[in-house]
Amino acid sequence: GAWQGAWAAAPHQPVSQSDVSFRMIVRPTLGGDRLRLRFSNAYGSQPTRITAVSVAIRSTGPAVDGSSLQAVLFGGLPGAEVPPGTELLSDALDFSWSFGEELAVSFHVAESSDMDQHGNAVAVGYSGSGDLTLDAAGSGYGNVVTSFFGFMGLDVDRPDASGTIVALGDSITDGGNPPEINNRWPDYLADRLHEAGLVFSVLNEGIGANQVTRDTEFLGFSEAAVSRFERDVLQRPGLRTVVLFEGTNDLAGEVGAQEVFDGLVDMARRARAAGVRTIIGTVTPRGSSALWTDAMEQQRVLLNQMLRDAVGLEFDALADFDTALANPLLPNLMATQYDSGDGLHPNPLGLQEIAATLPLEAL
Hints:
Elements: E1 3-8, E2 13-17, E3 20-26, E4 32-41, E5 48-57, E6 70-71, E7 80-82, E8 86-89, E9 93-97, E10 103-109, E11 113-118, E12 125-129, E13 143-145, E14 148-149, E15 151-157, E16 163-169, H1 171-174, H2 185-195, E17 200-206, H3 225-234, E18 239-245, H4 248-252, H5 257-273, E19 277-281, H6 294-309, E20 317-319, H7 321-325, H8 348-357
Parallel strand pairs: 16-17, 16-18, 18-19, 19-20
Antiparallel strand pairs: 1-15, 2-11, 3-10, 3-12, 4-8, 4-9, 4-15, 5-6, 5-7, 5-10, 11-14, 12-13
Helix pairs in contact: 2-8, 3-5, 5-6
């Protein structure tokens, strides 16, 4: 089939679970009539032992539309193991949903199992003891969870699609607030593409506190973008374009602009070698945020100028998020109407502005 990545989360740390069902709620960025699911155990030390999986149209809370509830198989079987250091795709399933509908993906692990976690999902999911994969009412899901567990991707078979766009970034890409309203900037970009009649999917591969060149333990372990680029970007199906929007956490960690630039160029060159276009995003202002210094601001200005100068050479296009969100009178600060209040993270209006700034012609 003509597979496109319709939804994704970036795994970044392992957890261990036993005899528990999870019901993860996701909003794919393309509708379709055929899907497959991806389960990740990249960081585990023992297998993920899945006994049953289902998918359905979400109703409210943990409840689903029972008429849509279907089992998902692996090689024709209801369960599978995901060995440590790997990910596993399910069999394809005929299943219809429309753009904007939320899906509930439920799975059960019966024995002590490792699986990957995406810590800050900015979403609400559910868990409960035992196999609850066919519980349409959701009454057994007594626990609310705010991370994604195990299930890290949903692909759609869309021969008419123009390709998959991957947004690689940090917390500004990873989430908005509050949970459950799907107001991350990649969500707004998917809405914009849909309204324009452009058949692209958008994958959010952001991780809070992620850095371009160095691993970090802040907010949980996450590999540097240059290290996870192969898995989280180049291995995604239907890949057409990657948006690189990182660097602020490197600069806050006193990494110099040249090192950050070199890391971004490295990823752009790897993308180009794979036939993938790169849109580079400039680093947005954070002059009023905690622990930010004049020296860091100087490095941010330098990095952004290096990025602008490299468009057409190392990068295919520019998304000037810096200019879009800056206070025009005090460009080291985010404009008040876009600031969530911490000087670093945009509010929903700012996230909409990021999505609006991305040049569609560059896709």
